[in-house]
């Protein structure tokens, strides 16, 4: 059990709020994507959940227990951070042992097996690793941690396409074998869209969306065709993006596509198509208006 | 003019070769993708081209002049490295000024305009920047450098999807306005495949492929269907990957798809489809065999 509840959470640095009055429930045994623009506050949110920094207002509970009042509850979570917290001179195999001292369920055999499969030299020191292999070493520790909640912050930074594919497959294998809560904070959205169940989008210091990927994708579509007809179609719709080229236009709508709508689109001689998650993210978090 | 010729280039560290007997011509005014797995030697190659490290054997010339004998010829190139070479305490606007002292054609106005568009605070020090904004500051300096050859090593590291899209668009705009040679070394292949003209793949200490993207993509295809029939079809083909599921198979072939082949595929009741560049890269640089 590891139900994470975030209630009216705010974090300010001086006068500036990084997150403001944010509430969110992270369900158990689900794979989430945590999405947001550079600087949106994703890492701040993850640091608050894991009690690495303290909220200005509000609280985070795991299974009903406030993380600020009980350090041990946070041990249910393993948080792979983008910044390294270990000394540069530590070797990868020393990191494994070091982690086992904090996470007794750490699976050393699994960590060594993954090291082989990723092709990492575990005798190397951190400071000798490239960006890609530094990410790989942290991925391995997180997967093998034995924690009930795994949080990955930018896990695929510097990983080549092979390594990314292997990571995604291994993540699913690990999750299928022993369901757990997984939170992936990443900018490489399209590649992970098929493995996510839930999506949490952070924008303007708060949660913009918290929904199942399936729901999000099935509640959006793009219509394209002659500008005049697209304009006519979208005028009373929840349009989130428009692209124009000569006298053609493509508009993305954030609504369910009903049978009546399909008929109307066909009557107007417009085309309809699906939207990819990464595109949807760009439209939802962008500043541009539908004109 | 900036024609880069690499002749029988080798680089060894102790007994271990990072690159061996590599020859390559990089044509002018073309956009190249430099692809390779983690640790394949891409950065070593770029460091040799820009005379930051010295070859064990062979040489690199720019417009016929050996880069090792003439430091100034290297000034035709601006190389955005993954590792930071500037002091941590330098501010972004100081980096602009510093670059202008080495690259007299550095366009300060353009750098400031890009800074605004990317939303970076140029008064910040490097050490205060996140991975994404650190990449952005280096992208700006490279684009504004005024050099004839721009080399980007992992430019989109940590960039959100908006920023990546803006970078790709700006790169094309910059190139269209003033054609130059651009080399992009990146692991996020699929997103850039549409902007590349040439692809250079590094594998086993040498060049595996150096060809136009169009050629590569039009000389490959995937056939899928019943395993037995796929096996029959591929037995005398240059197969580079096979995926199986129950009694179905998909095989990717690295050959031109002729009219006769199309007829044969249709006779065998197989489906044919195109291959994406990132997938092709994975197949070509992988260790797996076609079975």
Give descriptors for this structure.
homodimer, 291 residues, alpha/beta, Alpha-Beta Plaits, 2 domains, six-stranded mixed beta sheet, four-stranded antiparallel beta sheet, 10 helices, nucleotide-binding (chains A, B), ATP-binding (chains A, B)
Structure write-up:
Two copies of one chain form a homodimer. The first copy, chain A, has 291 residues and is an alpha/beta fold. The first copy, chain A, has two domains: 4-215, P-loop containing nucleotide triphosphate hydrolases (Rossmann fold, 3-Layer(aba) Sandwich); 219-285, Alpha-Beta Plaits (2-Layer Sandwich), CATH 3.30.70. The first copy, chain A, is globular, with a radius of gyration of 22 Å. In chain A, the strands form three sheets. Chain A has a six-stranded mixed sheet with strand order 6-7-8-3-9-10, with helices on both faces. Chain A has a four-stranded antiparallel sheet with strand order 2-1-4-5, with helices on one face. A four-stranded antiparallel sheet of chain A has the order 12-13-11-14. The first copy, chain A, starts with a strand and ends in a 6-residue tail after the last helix. In chain A, helix 3 (108-118) runs antiparallel to helix 4 (131-144). In chain A, strand 7 (149-153), helix 5 and strand 8 (181-185) form a beta-alpha-beta unit. Chain A is built from ten helices and 14 strands. Chain A binds chain B through residues 36-39, 82, 130-133, 154, 157-165, 187-190, 278, 281-282, 285-286, and chain B through 36-39, 82, 130-133, 136, 154, 157-165, 187-190, 278, 281-282, 285-286.
């Amino acid at each position: 059990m590891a139900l994470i509840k975030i209630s009216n959470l705010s974090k300010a640095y001086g006068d500036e709020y990084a997150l403001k009055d944010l509430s969110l429930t992270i369900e158990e045994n689900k794979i989430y994507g945590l999405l947001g623009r550079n600087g949106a506050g994703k890492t701040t949110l993850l640091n608050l959940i894991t009690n690495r920094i303290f909220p200005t207002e509000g609280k985070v509970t795991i299974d009903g227990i406030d993380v600020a009042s009980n350090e041990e509850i946070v041990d249910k979570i393993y948080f792979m951070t983008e910044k390294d917290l270990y000394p540069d001179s530590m070797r990868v195999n020393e990191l494994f042992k070091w982690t086992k001292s904090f996470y007794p369920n750490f699976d050393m055999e699994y960590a060594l097996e993954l090291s082989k499969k990723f092709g990492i030299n575990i005798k190397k020191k951190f400071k000798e690793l490239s960006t890609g292999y530094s990410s790989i070493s942290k991925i391995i520790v997180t997967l093998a941690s034995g924690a009930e909640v795994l949080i990955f912050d930018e896990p695929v930074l510097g990983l080549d396409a092979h390594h990314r594919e292997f990571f995604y497959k291994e993540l699913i294998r690990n999750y299928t074998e022993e369901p757990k809560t997984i939170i992936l904070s990443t900018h490489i959205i399209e590649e992970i869209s098929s493995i996510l169940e839930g999506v949490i989008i952070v924008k303007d210091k708060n949660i913009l969306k918290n929904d199942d990927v399936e729901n999000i994708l099935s509640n959006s579509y793009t219509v394209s065709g002659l500008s005049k007809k697209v304009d006519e179609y979208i005028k009373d719709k929840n349009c989130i993006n428009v692209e124009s080229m000569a006298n053609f236009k493509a508009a993305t709508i954030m609504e369910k596509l009903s049978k009546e709508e399909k008929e109307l689109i066909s009557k107007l001689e417009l085309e309809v198509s699906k939207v990819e998650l990464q595109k949807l993210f760009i439209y939802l978090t962008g500043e541009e208006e539908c004109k």
